[in-house]
Design a protein that fits this description.
Blueprint lengths: L1 H5 L4 E6 L6 E5 L13 E4 L10 H8 L7 E4 L3 H9 L5 E5 L2 H7 L3 E5 L11 E5 H6 L1 H20 L1 H12 L3 H13 L11 H13 L18 H6 L2
Parallel strand pairs: 3-4, 3-5
Antiparallel strand pairs: 1-7, 2-5, 2-6
Helix pairs in contact: 7-8
Length: 234
């Protein structure tokens, strides 16, 4: 989305949601530390997808160079889960509850990627600017409802876990654990705010991938319009 905005697209971020990734580093059972990932194969969504660039943070923390690990685009989280079981990849980032299920199957959990990448705008509310201007009241009402729903989720964890279990096709225990991790790691911006720290990390990633010009300078006004969010708080 940031890349498209720098190319002149009418897309705009109007609110935030997940301000850091809810993923854990899941690896084969014999891999016990980040250092053990040296020389291993890490499966990612695509070579130009944001979380792919977390691999360099993993390598740095593990004490080796990025060139010392192999990276292969294999697809999304369910595919990575299957490939781990088939031992076709050595590690991959998995969001909860898939990370919990992997732990139960004996895979190693090397910790949350948020410990290495504490600021990253993982999910946002993005709209077409032309549509937003023509439907301002609808968008403001949506953001107000989303903020209230987020507040309700944390205020009613048992009820929220039951709903999440159905939607995520997991157990209520896993859903409750996910909610607890969400709160503990401060994954969600409860007021839907968007910080420069989280956006700049995304900008740096897409710039590294060559998706925006090398000379591009971070400019929040190119892709963020918080006027709708401000109106939703009135």
């Amino acid at each position: 989305m940031i890349a498209e905005s720098y190319k002149g697209s009418a897309l705009r971020v109007v609110a935030g949601s997940a301000q850091r990734p809810p993923h854990f580093i899941i690896a084969q059972p014999e891999i016990k530390s980040l250092a053990d990932l040296k020389g291993k194969l890490i499966g990612v969504v695509s070579m130009q997808e944001g979380t792919t660039f977390f691999v360099k943070d993993i390598a740095r923390k593990g004490g080796f160079d990025l060139a010392d690990v192999r990276v292969q685009a294999v697809g999304g989280s369910p595919t990575r889960a299957r490939l781990l079981k088939e031992r076709k990849i050595d590690a991959g980032l998995q969001p909860y509850p898939l990370s919990y299920e992997a732990e139960a199957d004996g895979f190693s959990n090397l910790g949350p990627i948020a410990d290495l990448v504490p600021d990253y705008q993982f999910t946002s509310v993005v709209v077409d600017e032309t549509w937003a201007r023509a439907n301002r009241q609808v968008l403001v009402a949506l953001l107000r409802a989303l903020r209230r729903g987020t507040e309700y989720m944390f205020a009613h964890p048992d009820e929220s876990a039951e709903l999440a279990a159905r939607e995520l096709r997991t157990t209520p225990a896993n859903a409750r654990r996910a909610l607890e991790h969400t709160a503990r790691m401060d994954v969600l911006a409860r007021d839907l705010s968007i910080t420069d720290k989280s956006l700049m990390r995304v900008f740096d990633s897409v710039k590294s991938a060559g998706l925006v010009p090398a000379e591009a300078v971070y400019d929040r006004t190119k892709f963020v319009d918080e006027s709708y969010l401000r109106d939703s708080r009135r």
